[in-house]
Specification:
6 helices; 2 strands; globular
């Protein structure tokens, strides 16, 4: 497994933004939580055989669970803010959870990921694996090996993720300035709510 922090960072690159380029912090927080969530199976990984579908990197890491949980999380977010459900939000949250299993396939581990569970218990690993597997045991989190693994992840995962995040923000703001369209909320109330009367304040004809 990659470290929990690195899994959470996978929510950054395509985080929802409004037309001003402002990030929807609520959606980002939910996405980061879902990106880490599949590792809940570490709570019982010693109780089951290594290749068991419910053991680590099993069912919780599957594409099916990601689709179901991500869609439910989007529906829950919609209810919390009493806003229409945006399918793009569902897609984003599903992608955050899918990223966990896919990222784990790139770690140097003997245990693959059951991406197609429960239909197929085959464990998959990427043909090229460039990240050392992190320790599951919490007491190893500050070990020299664990810190070295985090250094690898900073280079191969954090840097590209942050670069995409920053580039998307700059591109969104550039498009807004180019089109001269007043900012609005892409993700309705879940995103940064537009200020009442903002559109009228920016009307060139106002006050004439």
């Amino acid at each position: 497994m990659a470290t929990a922090l690195t899994h959470a960072v996978m929510a950054l690159p395509f985080a929802p933004r409004d037309s001003d380029g402002k990030v929807c912090k609520t959606a980002l927080a939910i996405g980061a939580l879902l990106a880490v969530a599949p590792d809940v199976d570490v709570l019982w990984w010693r109780l089951l055989p290594g290749g068991h579908m419910l053991n680590h990197r099993g069912l919780t890491h599957s594409l099916l669970v990601a689709v179901v949980v991500g869609t439910l999380a989007a529906a829950l977010a919609r209810r919390l803010v009493r806003a229409p459900l945006d399918p793009r939000l569902s897609l984003y949250l599903v992608a955050c959870m899918v990223s966990h299993g896919l990222l784990d396939t790139f770690t140097r581990s003997a245990l693959g990921v059951a991406l197609l569970a429960p239909f197929d218990d085959t464990r998959y690993l990427a043909p090229v694996r460039f990240i050392s597997a992190a320790w599951i045991a919490p007491l190893r989190a500050l070990s020299h090996d664990h810190i070295a693994i985090l250094g690898q992840e900073l280079l191969w995962i954090w840097a590209p993720a942050v670069a995409i995040f920053v580039a998307r923000g700059a591109l969104t703001r550039h498009r807004r300035l180019s089109s001269l369209v007043p900012g609005g909320s892409v993700y309705n109330r879940l995103a940064v709510a537009p200020v009442a009367g903002a559109a009228s304040d920016q009307d060139p004809g106002r006050g004439r």
